[in-house]
Structures are given as C-alpha cells and as structure tokens.
Amino acid sequence: MSNQLQAEQRLPNEKLVYWALQFNVLITVMNTTMFNVAIPAITMDFTLSPSEVSWVVMSYSVMFALGTVTYARLADQFELKKLITIGLSLLGLGSVVGVLAPSFGILIGARIMQAAGASAIPGLGMVMTSRYIPLERRGRSLGKIAAASSLGFGLGPVLGGLISQFFGWSSLFFITLLGLLMLPVYRNQLPNEESRKGHFDVGGMGLLALAVIAMLAWISTGNHWFASGLIFIILFWLYTGRVQTPFISRQLLTSRKYVPLVVLQFLVFFQYFAVLFMFPLLLADIYQLPIMRIGFVIFPGALCSALASFFIGRWFDQASSVPLLAGGICLLKTALLLFSCLGYFSFWVVMFSYLIAAIGFTIVTTGISREVSNILDRGHIGAGIGFLQLCQFFGGAFGVASTGRLLEYDTQAYISFNPLWVGTHAAYGHTFALMAGVSLFTLAVYLLNLYGQDRNRSRDKAEGYQDFSA
Q1: What CATH superfamily is the domain 1-198?
Q2: CATH 2.40.50.140 fits domain 254-470
Q3: Is 49 left (phi over 0), alpha (psi -120 to 50) or beta?
Q4: What's this model's pTM, rounded to 2 decimal places?
Q5: Where are the alpha helices (DSSP H) in 288-346?
Q6: Pairing with 27, which of 13, 342, 426, 469 sits 20 to 30 Å away (CA)?
Q7: Which residues, including other chains, have CB under 8 Å from residue 340's CB and lie 6 or more apart?
Q8: Selection from 117, 144, 122, 148 nearest residue 133 by Cα
Q9: Which ranges carry the Major facilitator superfamily (MFS) profile domain (predicted)?
C-alpha cells in the first residue's frame, strides 16, 4: 500500500468549504462549553440532583464519542456529502427539540440527537482534509480547523453565560441551529463520489460502543462496576482478529507509527482538559471571580491560540514536525509549571499561563493531525482518524475525572509536597505539579518514539519489512 495518502480530487472553492468547516467546528465546540455554563440553571428549572443533571453532559459525551469514530469509519464507504448532510440535519433537529423541551427526559433526548449530528464534523473534517488537500498545504488547512476549535473554547463560556443570563438556557439551542446554514456549501462544493462496496462491522461497533459507554460512565460517576468496560475492550480486541473487515483493524491498532501518535494525543488532551477544568475553579476559589468574568479571562488565551493556529499550520507545511511537536509539549509543560508555582501569586500570571497552554496544545494537536493524515492509506484513513479522536476524547475525560479526584483527595488529606506554592488553596499547586509531571512523561514518550522509529527503520530495511504506515 501507499505510505502516504495524496489528495484525490480538488475542491472547486477550497476557501469557501473551509470557511464553512471552520464555522461548523466553532459551533460544535461552543455547543459543549456553552451548556457546561448553563448546568446550574438547568438544575434549578427541573429540580435535579447533581447526579441527574450530569447526564446533560454525559449523554452528549457518550454519543459524541461513538458518533465521531462511526462517521469517520463510514467515510471509507459512503460519500462525505451525504454523511455531512445527515450529521447537520440531526444537529438541527436536536436543536429544535431542545428549544421546545418540556421535560428533562426530552432535554436529554435532544442532547443525544445533537451529539449524533455534531459528531460528524470533527472526524469528517479531517477525512475531507486528507482526501482533498495536497500534503504540502495540509498543515495550513488543519491549522484553520484548530483555530476555530480554540476560538470555540473561549467563546463558549462567554456566550453561554450571557445568553443564559438574559434569555434563558433554552436559547442556547438557537446558536447550534446556525450550523445548518453551511449545508448548501457542502452540497454544492463537495465532489460527487461513488459509494464503495464493503461490509460495515456492526458487531465490532457494538462492542466498542459498550466499552465506551461503560468506561465513560466509570470516569463520570466513579462507580467501579462500570470498570466492566475493560471486559468489552478485551472482547473487542479478540473479535477484530476473527472478522475479515473489522470496525477497526488489528493492522491499525498495532502500527508502529500510528499507535504512538494516538498515545501522545491521549496524554496531551489529558493535560489540557485538566487545565480547562481547574482554571475556572482556581479563579473562583482564589480570586473570587464570578462566572461571567471567568469566561472573559479564558477568552484572550483562546483568541491568541486561534490566531496563532494560522501560522502554526504553515510552519508544519514548511518545516520538520519534530522540533515543533517537542516545542508544543514544552510550552504545555511550562504553563503547568507556572500554574503550580505562581498560580496563587497574580491574576495576570494565571491568564498568561493559560495563554501558553492554549498555544502549546494547538501546536501539538495540529502536528499530530497532520502526521496521522500523512501516514494512513485510503483503506485506514476513516477508521484511523475516528479512533484517534475517540482516544483524545477519552484523554480529556480522564484528565477531568483524575483532576477532580486529586483536588478532592488533596484537600481532605492536607498533604504538602509542592514548596513553591505558598498561597492558600495549596491543592491546586499540588495537582498542577502532578500534571507537569505527566507533561514530562509525554515529552519522554515522544522522544522515545522518535528513537524507536529510527531503530525500526534500520531493522525493517535489513529485513525487508514494510508497515502500511511506514
């Protein structure tokens, strides 16, 4: 097989398509962060307990995770134009149902429907880039997507707080309806493609779905019975070795180039979502900032990261990805060290640290996306991108859950192992220090992977072996 997926066709108006894709990515990311801010209002309106209202986030998260890998996998057989049409239609329908939701049960159904549609955007956006954009401009295109995502992280809490306060939380569903405006662009600009014959592995998808639901429930609730998801992971692995066209192939899951990138993506999302989780809590506990002001503190870092994304994509097109990826990891580590040492010292230090973290995160995720689109061939691009995004979602979820438990344990135990934090609420200093340790481990994983690639390349040359992604 070819070791590099070249662009198969050209888009008639590439700029227009990517403006549409950026807008949909922005709406999709905002759809998550806006509703996180609205959770207290939803709790009061429906008189819910914390465990009940958590399903607003958890139901969306589970469906989004499953949908992302499913859409990307379907892209190997069906044309992108149809899949994106289905996704945006479901997103719009779910938004309409959410605006009119008279009960909490219908609200949950609306969020699940939204996630079933919104999950088409990230995976299919990367497939679109890999399929239609030449390698020499692929980093630039991925940078545009990263810019929209970064801006969504910043705008979501700001707009979510403003809209919820003045118009009510149900008005947030009107924002996601705007995503339908881009549907005519995709219908007119994406090339017509023939559906490819193939078997869609429903059994493998079912086992993966059960594993995802159980593991995310374990992360979200802390109920160890859900650890049974590990059994479904084992069954999924055994099953993929028995079917001819599995949902995700063994060849992909054992690739010496692909798997390390997935691990790196998991670790980076673990750290960055831990920052996103602790950042507002720190501002509220130490600096007593209200929700509205916290959103405005997040926004500058998100805006700078979005602007930097345009340059980052071009850097990856023009230079080696090795120093850029290493530099991005080091930026994220620097931010975590600043948080752990000086987070108590000044409001401005906290804002600057988040800005560094956001830029480092954007560098690494853009680079990994470009590398994955480069090493996968046509037969694996959909499954490879979908599984990558599924794992990054798990990384973010584990980061949030682990950080919450670390903060809780640290507060109860009154331990002190970070002498550089001399202010109040030392639990934040300790937890950020542990995250900085994870960042150091991430850098080690990346450097060891580079060393391993050099050794494997020499061995493969001697043995005449060629990996599909080598």
Answers
A1: MFS general substrate transporter like domains (1.20.1250.20)
A2: no
A3: beta
A4: 0.78
A5: 291-318, 321-342
A6: 13
A7: 418, 420, 421, 429, 430, 432, 433, 435, 436
A8: 144
A9: 17-454
